[in-house]
Amino acid sequence: LPSEMKLATVGRGSAVALEEALGREPDIVPATTYDSEGLLALPALQRVDGQRILILRGEGGREPLADTLRRRGATVDYLEVYRRECPVPEKRNQGWLEKTDIITITSSEALQNLVSLTAAAQRSQLLAKPLVVISERTAALAQKLGFCHPALVAERAADEAIVQALIDWTHRKLPEPQP
Question: One digit per residue, pLDDT tens: the chain, 179 residues?
Fold first, then answer.
């Protein structure tokens, strides 16, 4: 790629993948909120009038990034480079729900897949499980899908923040000490 071309990504994982594939770090990466909204909040994407922007995404991805960049004056095109699909469950994974105290979900698609893959007979058991998620959007979806507990939203989409949310949940879950 030409060195004058700016590269942006929404998350650290994508930044590492870009560096490995292209031999250079992205120029623009959100520091805290790893999503389109976090990217759009950065100073580098405030004034894009007259710029051409190519968004690499999965088939049928969200529109807010392109819509906002167009409103800010950019010409935006897509290159769809992957497809999100619901996985096929493996028989050996049966019984996992009974052994699970809390579920970590890192995307709205994963949450929808989890619900759709859960047998109707186990759906109420699934919906009773607490969740740790990485975005308010996924927390809202969990509520809409009928999860009993409000989802715990990790401070950011990073392993350390997810682990901290799990630790926080564990401390809240423990019984009060006996005097």
Answer: 788 889 999 877 888 888 898 888 899 988 777 788 889 999 999 999 999 999 988 888 889 999 999 999 999 999 888 888 888 877 666 788 999 999 999 999 999 999 998 988 899 999 999 999 999 999 999 999 999 999 999 988 888 889 999 999 988 865 555 55
Taking the CB of residue 74, how many other CB atoms lie within 10 A of it? 17
Q: Which of 88, 122, 112, 116 is nearest to 131 (CA)?
A: 112
Quickly count: other Cβ atoms within 10 Å of residue 36's Cβ.
22
Instruction: Compute and round to an integer the Cα radius of gyration of the chain.
Output: 19
Long-range contacts from 125-129, C-beta under 8 angstroms, 24+ separation: 125/97, 125/98, 126/97, 129/97, 129/100, 129/101, 129/102, 129/103
How far apart (Å, rounded) are the C-alpha atoms in residues 65 and 52?
A: 14
Beta-strand ranges (E) seen in the chain are: 52-58, 75-82, 103-104, 131-133, 152-153
Residues facing residue 54 across a β-bridge: 77
- In sequence order, which residues have a C-beta less than 8 Å from that of residue 150 and are 6 or more positions away? 139, 142, 143
Nearest to 105 by CA among 130, 82, 122, 125: 130
